[in-house]
């Protein structure tokens, strides 16, 4: 049975689950699947001239709406739905999850020796009311050799990570400095998440 102090987490990311558990949030996974087993259709292609912040807000809001569609379809108890989306941006270009290892290698070469931004948009929705927050962090990479990139890709799964890397893994050895939210770079900024949940009536510290 679900309690009133619980939420749905509409995400497959194990990192987001881990982060929510760190701050003691009780949640149930909301698996984003249609009745016939197809993934719910969310357009994650950037629009022409769409700013990274506009893009990520749009995708996160679409995920929240899809989450409520899922709840209504399955006649689930009405609880807040938490969604999140993370992208890496450099020179105004959006780097999402790589298509394959070749694409991941291309992304890491772009990030090598440069500073990039990590944007994570989160939303907490109750029916059609979705409150949003944006976490923006800056990360600077050292120069990474081609051999290091290949070794990293062999030893790590980069295909489910924006920008093809995870700050909490081996890629930490590439990072010279960060400015912003460590948990936001991981995929769920806990400060903003706690704020939104509190506004929904779910207090972490009681």
UniProtKB/TrEMBL annotation:
<dbReference type="GO" id="GO:0009117">
    <property type="term" value="P:nucleotide metabolic process"/>
</dbReference>
<feature type="active site" description="Proton acceptor">
    <location>
        <position position="85"/>
    </location>
</feature>
<dbReference type="GO" id="GO:0047429">
    <property type="term" value="F:nucleoside triphosphate diphosphatase activity"/>
</dbReference>
<feature type="site" description="Important for substrate specificity">
    <location>
        <position position="15"/>
    </location>
</feature>
<dbReference type="GO" id="GO:0005737">
    <property type="term" value="C:cytoplasm"/>
</dbReference>
<feature type="site" description="Important for substrate specificity">
    <location>
        <position position="168"/>
    </location>
</feature>
<comment type="similarity">
    <text>Belongs to the Maf family. YhdE subfamily.</text>
</comment>
<dbReference type="Pfam" id="PF02545">
    <property type="entry name" value="Maf"/>
</dbReference>
<comment type="function">
    <text>Nucleoside triphosphate pyrophosphatase that hydrolyzes dTTP and UTP. May have a dual role in cell division arrest and in preventing the incorporation of modified nucleotides into cellular nucleic acids.</text>
</comment>
<keyword id="KW-0963">Cytoplasm</keyword>
<feature type="site" description="Important for substrate specificity">
    <location>
        <position position="86"/>
    </location>
</feature>
<protein>
    <recommendedName>
        <fullName>dTTP/UTP pyrophosphatase</fullName>
        <ecNumber>3.6.1.9</ecNumber>
    </recommendedName>
</protein>
<keyword id="KW-0546">Nucleotide metabolism</keyword>
<dbReference type="InterPro" id="IPR029001">
    <property type="entry name" value="ITPase-like_fam"/>
</dbReference>
<dbReference type="InterPro" id="IPR003697">
    <property type="entry name" value="Maf-like"/>
</dbReference>
<keyword id="KW-0378">Hydrolase</keyword>
